[in-house]
Amino acid sequence: MPSYTVYLEQLPGMLEAWAKDHAVYVPVQTEPGFYDYAPWREDVEIAWEFDVAYNSPKRFLMPPKEELIAFDAEKYTAKATFEAPAQMVFGVHPYDVRAIAQLDQIMESGAPDQYYLRRRENTVIMALDPLRVSETAFWSTMGAGECDLGFDLYWTKIGPAAFLVRVGSARGEELLMAAGKPVKASTSERDAACRAQEAVRRVADRRGLRFPWQEVPAVLDRSWNSGLWRERSEMCLGCGSCNVVCPTCYCFDVREEMDLSMKSGTRYRTWDACMLSSFALIAGGHNFREKALERYRHRYFRKGKYIHDMVGELGCVGCGRCVRACTARIANPMEVYNALWEETR
Amino acid sequence: MSRKNFSPYVPRPATLVRKERLSDLVTLFEFAPDNGRPLAHKPGQFIQVSVFGVGEAPFSISSFPDPGNHHFEIAVRKTGTVTNALHALKEGDKAAIRGPYGSFFPIQEFVGKDTIFIAGGLGYIPLRSLLRYQLRHRDEFGRIILLVGTRNPSERIFVDRLEELAKRPDVEVHETVDVPDKDWKGNVGVVTTLLPKLTFDPDNTYVAMVGPPVMYRFVIGGCQELGISPRRIYVSLERKMKCGLGKCGHCQINGINACIDGPVFRYTDIESLQEAL
After folding, report:
1. How confident is the model at residue A180 (pLDDT cuts 50, 70, 90)?
2. Pick from A202, A297, B101, B226: most CB atoms within 10 A?
3. Where residue B63 sits, what CATH number does that domain have?
4. Which residue among B9, B213, B246 sits closest to A69, beta carbon to beta carbon?
5. pLDDT tens column, B154-195
6. Would the pTM count as exceeding 0.90?
7. Domain ranges, residue B73
8. Residue of B nearest to A305 (CA)
9. Can you tell me the distance from the alpha carbon of B213 to that of B253, in angstroms, rounded to the nearest whole number?
10. Domain ranges of chain A
11. Same domain, residue pair B111 and B96
12. Do the strands A252-258 and A264-271 form a parallel or antiparallel pair, or are they unpaired?
C-alpha cells in the first residue's frame, strides 16, 4: 500500500478541490467536549483531536429517512427512487471504518441492498487515526482498533503539521494526486505514524474487555438466563438512543406518505430500534419481545453473537457511543460482556 | 434492467377479482397479478401486499401453486390499518404485491407419506396451500388428516370447504373449538386434545402445523409423545416481516430471520432457539 506525506498547509486546498464535486464532511466541535461531522467550509475548524463523533457516520450511507419508491396510487404503478450523492467523509476513526466495512458486508449479502450500496459507492471514506480516546470507548479490545479495508485514504497525524497518508483504493490515490502534489513517505515518516498509532493505542488499551473478543459469542452462549439482563433492563426506558447512535445498528421500518394531491406518494425507510417496545409487535397485538429484558438481551446477543455468526466479527466496535447516549446508564457492552464473562468463566 | 437499478421494494399491481367472507373478521381475497404471471410460489410462502397510501403487510398465500392459473388467494383478518384498507377494496380495485418470499413446506419429502395438518385459528390459511396441493396430486400422498382448532364456532373459517372435505373418503377431518356455543355439537378443547384420538403410523407420518404462538409447544410435545420424529414436524412461524429480504431486523428469531430462513421450519432446526416457540 503506497503512502505519502501531506502537510497540514496543503489540506485546505485539497478539501477545496474535493468539495467541487463532493459534499465533504469533517469532524467539528459542536459543544465543548462534543463532536460531530459537519459540512466542510473554508472557515470550519476541523477538530483534529476529536475523541468520537456523537453521531456515527452510518447516516451518510443509510440516512435516518430514505425514500425507497415513488408510487402512483391511481394507476397503481411504482418506481424505485435511488439517491446517491457524491460525498466524502473526512476523519473516520478506524472503529467506525470497521463498522462501515461490516455494514458493507451485510448489505451486500443475500438480497443486495442497492440503496445502501449505491450511496456507498459514491462515498469517499477518509480514515483518520484518533489522537484522543473517548472516556467510554473500548474499541482497542474489540478487534476494532485498526482497519485494513473500507477506506480510500488513511490519514495519521505525524507531528504538528504533517500526515502520513496511506492509500486504500485507486479512487483514493487519484483524489490525492488530483488535489495536490504529495511526496512519497519516507521510512522515518512511516515509523512516526506507527509510533503515533501505538501511543494512542496504549491509552485505549487501558480499558476494555478483560478477555479476548473472540470469546464473546461463547460467553453469551452461557448467559441466556443470567440475572444481569433483569438487573440492567429494569432501568431501561426503552428510548432506543443506544440504537440510534450505534454505528452498526441498521434495522429500519418501512413507511409511506401521500402527496397533498392524494394521488401519489412515497414509501421510505426510517431507522428503527430493537429497544422500542413496538419493534416486534404484530397486528393483532402479539409482541414477540414484550419485556424490556427480552429487548435488552436481544441487543447484546445481536452485537455479540448473531452478527458474529453472520460476518465473523463482533457487531460492537467499542466506540462507546451508546454508553454516553443512554439516559438510564445501562447501555454498556464492555461492562455487560465483562460481567457475563466473570459470571460464567 | 441491470442489477444496480433493481429494487425489490417496487411492487407490481394486482387486481382484486373476488372477495369472500369467511367469518366476521376474516375475508378471502382472490387477486390476479396484472402482468398475467403466476406467483410461482410454494406452499407456506408469503407475499407483501400494499395498499398505496396506507402501507404494506405480509400475508401467507392460501392458494396452491398452479402453473395454469395466475390468480392467487390470501385470507386476511381485519386487525390493523393495511388489513382494514384491504377489506375496503371492491372487486376490480387494485393492490400491489411483491414476493413470494420465504421458505416453504418441502413437498417432495411428503410424497408417499401420511400428513397430519394441524391448524390453530388462522393457521389454516397457509396450511391450505399445502393441503390443496396434496389434494390436487392426491395419488402421490398417503393419508391426509386434518386437525382444526378454533377459539369459538363463530371464528371458524372455510366452514363449507371443511364440510365438503369431511365427506371425502380420502380425507380425515377433525375439528374442535376452545369455547363452544349452544349450537356446537363437535369436539371441545384445544387442538392438542384431538391428537390422542388418532391412530396412525408415526414412522410414516409428517406433521405440518401453523397456529398462534401459544399453540406450538403443546402440539409439538403431543406429536412427539405419539412417536412422531421431530425431524418430520414442520412449523410456520409468524413474525413481523417488514422488508421480506432479511435486512430490516423485525422478524428476527435469535440470530435468524423468519422472512428468509422461515417462515416454514423443520422443528429440529429451531428447537434450540430460545425465541422460536
Report:
1. confident
2. A297
3. 2.40.30.10
4. B9
5. 999 999 999 999 999 999 999 999 999 999 999 999 999 999
6. yes
7. 3-101
8. B255
9. 13
10. 3-204, 213-344
11. no
12. antiparallel
